[in-house]
Amino acid sequence: MNNMMTDSAMHTESQATVLIAEDELDIAEILIAYLEKSGMRTLHASNGLQALEMHLAHKPDIILLDVQMPKLDGWRVLFEVRQRGNTPVIMLTAMDQDIDKLMGLRIGADDYVIKPFNPAEVVARTQAVLRRTITKEFLPQKILQLGALHIDIENHLVSVEQGSERFEITLTLTEFKLLALMARAPKRAYSRAELLENCLPEGDTLERTVDSHVSKLRKKLEQVGISDIPVGVRGIGYRFWERK
């Protein structure tokens, strides 16, 4: 089992998409060359706003994020990325003060590389973070608890706490898959295409079918006092909730 996990992790890691958020073109081009030589795909954003747009549009597997960028700095980009979900982030910066490192880690950075850096080291660190992330995916949480909701991934059971009592909610397999997927990253916005691909039966090919399943799921949750879950995201699809 461990060998299977390692082999799958190495395979997925080599095909990963890396978003490079770096305003210095020469540095970005070097990173692109090294990462693509190692087999990864790359995207490049030259400012913080563009980085957030590309993160939402392309769902990269990992972000290499410069701190000092125009329009939005790396700290604000990192904060927003963490609001959306768990995309791994490695900070790239000329700052070498311990307080800067602590800030990045506190906000949710996965690693921290100081400029000037050896691009081969950045590739190695990128691969290491991807391996850790992929390994976690092979060992998913068996129970998710979000507010009053309890989602038992292994046994496909959903229940809600009401005072001292707990009530089970009967969901179809598709409804359960939709709920469980969004609950893993509650603030991440999932496109209808993603939900269709990951949660619906193979014969379903229409994105509007997702809306029907989500509507039925929402009604079942409302019947037990859980409202506004999932939340519609205009022009994109759905997320689990909007809570701060």
Question: How would you describe the overall organization of this protein?
Answer:
With 244 residues, this protein is an alpha/beta fold. It has two domains: 2-138, Rossmann fold; 143-239, Orthogonal Bundle (Arc Repressor Mutant, subunit A), CATH 1.10.10.10. It is built from nine helices and twelve strands. It has a five-stranded parallel sheet, with helices on both faces. It has a four-stranded antiparallel sheet with strand order 6-7-8-9, with helices on one face. Strands 10-12-11 form a three-stranded antiparallel sheet. The chain is elongated, with a radius of gyration of 20 Å. Mean pLDDT is 83; it is low at 1-12.
Features:
244 residues, five-stranded parallel sheet, disordered N terminus, Rossmann fold, alpha/beta, four-stranded antiparallel sheet, single chain, Arc Repressor Mutant, subunit A
**Most strands sheet:** 5 strands, parallel
Structural class: alpha/beta
CATH architecture of the largest domain: 3-Layer(aba) Sandwich
| Helix count from the secondary structure assignment | 9
